[in-house]
Amino acid sequence: MKMKIRLVVLKVLSIVFFLFITTPHLLGQNNDSLNLAKESQHFNLYSTNGDIKVLYSLAITLENNYSRITNHLGIQIDKKINVKVFPNVKTFHAAINYPNAPDWVVGSCNGDELMMVSPLNPGSVHTYESLMQVIVHEFLHIAVSHARGDNGWTTLPRWLSEGYAQYEAGQVNEYIRKSVKSSLIDKTPPTWTQLDTASVMEFGKMNGYGLSVMIVEFLIVTYGIDKLVLLIKEPENIEIIYGLSKDALEKQWIHYLKE
Ligand SMILES: [Zn+2]
User: Fold this and answer.
1) Would you say domain 17-150 falls under CATH 3.30.750.24?
2) How close is the Cα of 19 to the center of ligand 1, in Å?
């Protein structure tokens, strides 16, 4: 059981980890073998012939989440987003110029383009289902970029961008909650500032993804989505938006985690 929990947590965490490594410079893309194979209202999907049959499900998944996400963020995206589906982990890693990446590296975004491994061939760590969440997660980063205009999403506090992407993609679950709770039995969690200033490696090691989605869940459950969206647009105004000091908010969050 413990192994299973770890595996599920790893799967969820792995999705997001990679973005920091690759964004914003994706060099050496090898997209020649992918063709535009499906268009939906808001997306153009590219794949090899072998993956055409999964594009319908990917397009439906994206479109089913599109209005909720753009409404939450109060944005309109005036062009179609490109989605590139690579036939396996190896070709995806080659495309992102990271040939020796581990198998859990399965998704990325660059500007207004999503790239991911085909859910039909998810590799040794991910599953069809988890890749259906990965694509929504990556779209979230693009949508947040649009909401922030020139500021982009990579300058957001990491707990906020990763936490919100996971939250909207439905990646918070009982396994995450248990992993966060059990990590707090003997110690206090890192502060939000520590989560922001950690390196990518440190962030992963301190269960930063699990903690981040629990922060966002706490803020939405307690104060509503509208304030969270304000925070995404103006994170420097956190104390004005919530009418509390950051310390007081963090204390409330720890209380929320322990409940
Ligand atoms: Zn992410």
Assistant:
1) no
2) 6
**Closest C-alpha among 105, 87, 93 to residue 51:** 87
Strands 43-47 and 107-110, by their bridges, are: unpaired
Domain ranges (residues) in the chain: 17-150, 158-258
Residue given tokens 């990590």 in the structure block: 183
Surface-to-core class of residue 211, CB atoms within 10 Å of its CB (0-12 exposed, 13-18 middle, 19+ buried): buried
- pLDDT digits 0-9 by tens, 29-81: 455 589 999 999 999 999 999 999 999 999 999 999 999 999 999 999 999 99
- CA end-to-end distance (rounded Å), the chain: 23
Q: What spacing in Å lies between the alpha carbon of 138 and ligand 1's midpoint?
A: 6
The pTM for the full model equals 0.85
Which tokens in the block code for residue 224?
A: 């509503």
